[in-house]
Amino acid sequence: MGLLSLTPAPCVSAEPLVIAASPSLATPLEALTRAYEAAHPDVQVKLYFDSGLDLRRMIAGMENSPTGQYFIGTGPIHLIAPGGDELITRLQQKYYVLPGSKRPYATVSLVMIVPESLVEAPLSFVAMARDTRMRVAVADPDMTLLGQKTRDLFKALGIADVLNDRMDVATDARGVVDHVLNGQADVGIIFGPDAVEKADRVRVVAVASEKEGRPILHSMAMERYCPNRTLCDDFLAYVQSAEAGTILKRLGYGVPTKP
Predict the structure, then answer these.
(1) How far is CA 86 from the centre of its chain?
(2) I need a labelling partner for 29 at 20 to 30 A (CA). Which of 148, 164, 166, 218 fits?
């Protein structure tokens, strides 16, 4: 419940905007908030990071406080930005976020990487599977979301059986990169943002399409007791703007397709 101490105090210079978010989104959210603050010097964005489970517990405790500490327009949290949309869906079911306030702003897709020094590389997942010389580094599908999404991608493309004997299983994304750089595998499958972090050592040669890989979707929503809905609406509009999209793409994220 440490976030509750962030209840906005009177401030002449800048109005606070508090976002409760998943630690996995620290990099994109910090980049977005810096850009937003640059254009809105009268606003100070405060990011509070915690696990999805703890965020849910905190919000449930705040909403169900027996003392009635908070009510509409007086809460300490403006926006919720968890990793993935499952938590927002659960909060919507409980009416802990405002109906209709959910805004998708970023996607995470699988990419295929090779060492930066490699000249000739497959340009698609199917081409990689057809080359019987290629060993593929993947994350553990039983222990990681990355591994599960990789397994689903291979099944969707119909190449899982072909690659079965050529997969080099690593612990996580960092392990996949290490296996590729150490020569244990020729190519590796990781998420786009992880590839950007290692851009000086690896190169992206293919990106899974939305149809093939079903990217992870990240959204924000307004907390029901949000103290300033107008400010929240403005920030939610910003994270779906062209400027925000450029920032996210530079970090290896995608932009959701508008319906």
Answers:
(1) 12
(2) 148
**Distance, CA of 151 to CA of 141 (rounded, Å):** 7
pLDDT in tens, 147-201: 999 999 999 999 999 999 999 999 999 999 999 999 999 999 999 999 999 999 9
Q: Give yes or no for a contact between 25 and 13, defined as CB atoms under 8 angstroms apart.
A: no
CA 228 centroid distance within chain: 25
Q: How far apart are CA 82 and CA 55, in angstroms?
A: 8
Compute CA distances 202 → 108, 125, 128, whole Å. 18, 17, 16
- For residue 110, the cross-strand partners are 191
Which residues does 39 contact at the CB level (< 8 Å), separation at least 6?
none
Q: What confidence category does residue 95 fall into, taking pLDDT thresholds of 50, 70 and 90?
A: confident
CA distances from 20 to 39, 45, 81, 88, 175 (A): 21, 11, 6, 12, 30
Residue in 173, 181, 175 with CA at minimum distance from that of residue 117: 181
In angstroms, rounded to a whole number, what is the distance separating the alpha carbons of residues 34 and 126?
A: 40
Q: What are phi and psi of 48, to 5 degrees?
A: -115, 120
Token pair belonging to 8 = 């906005």
Angle 143-147-251 from CA coordinates, rounded to 5°: 115
Angle ∠(120,124,127) on CA atoms, nearest 5? 75
If DSSP codes are grouped into helix, strand and coil, which group holds residue 98?
A: coil
Question: CA nearest 154: which of 193, 110, 115?
Answer: 110
